[in-house]
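[step 3/7] inverse_fold.run input=structure_tokens len=218
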């Protein structure tokens, strides 16, 4: 994990932390209005303060892994009670990265993007350890295995190549299902959940390929 890059980004964000938090929730509710269910009766201004407090604590303590593990596992346990499910973590991660990018502007690079994506995936994995160890059985059923961001990016690159070669979406899904990684994944979590993850990967790859073609044509 590129801690220096993350903490340099945090320094910039903290200069406008109140504005950053407000923008985060504005972006979240505008793009994913369905997550409003998690904030019924919540004072958003107080929630913005809580967000930045946790955000700063986590990124500032990346060197203190023991403390961070305990903090994030406890946080994950609490989020069970809030009704957070797997797709909510993906949504929050998507908005977080987009909001950070909008604040760093010209300072934003591929290196910074990958550092934040990796950090967020690590944070989520630790939170899910706390969530799935909470003895709340109904929650476990809604939390399938989360592939690492490295494997997701590798799978998306493979899918993009197949799509660029003119393969159909269904054929690409079947090709990925034969990949060694997804075969191992299927043995762990079953065919249905594996195909859900593959479908999400192909969807993202298709969107990337569409954006690539638009740029190429223009």
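[step 3/7] decode complete -> sequence:
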């Amino acid at each position: 994990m590129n801690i220096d890059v993350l903490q340099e980004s945090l320094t910039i964000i903290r200069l406008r932390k109140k504005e950053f938090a407000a923008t985060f929730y504005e972006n979240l509710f505008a793009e994913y209005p369905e997550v409003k269910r998690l904030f019924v009766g919540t004072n958003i201004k107080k929630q913005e303060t809580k967000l930045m407090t946790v955000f700063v604590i986590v990124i500032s303590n990346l060197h203190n892994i023991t403390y961070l593990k305990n903090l994030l596992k406890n946080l994950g346990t609490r989020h069970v009670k809030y009704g957070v499910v797997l797709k909510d973590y993906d949504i929050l991660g998507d908005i977080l990265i987009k909001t950070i990018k909008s604040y760093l502007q010209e300072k934003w690079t591929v290196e910074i993007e990958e550092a934040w994506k990796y950090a967020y995936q690590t944070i989520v994995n630790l939170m899910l350890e706390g969530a799935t160890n909470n003895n709340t059985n109904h929650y476990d059923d809604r939390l399938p295995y989360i592939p690492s961001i490295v494997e997701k990016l590798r799978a998306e690159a493979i899918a993009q190549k197949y799509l660029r070669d003119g393969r159909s979406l269904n054929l690409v899904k079947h090709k990925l299902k034969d990949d060694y990684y997804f075969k191992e994944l299927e043995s762990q979590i079953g065919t249905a959940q594996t195909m859900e993850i593959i479908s999400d990967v192909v969807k993202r790859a298709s969107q990337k390929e569409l954006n690539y073609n638009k740029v190429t044509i223009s």
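[step 4/7] annotate
The longest helix spans residues 191-217.
The mean pLDDT is 79.
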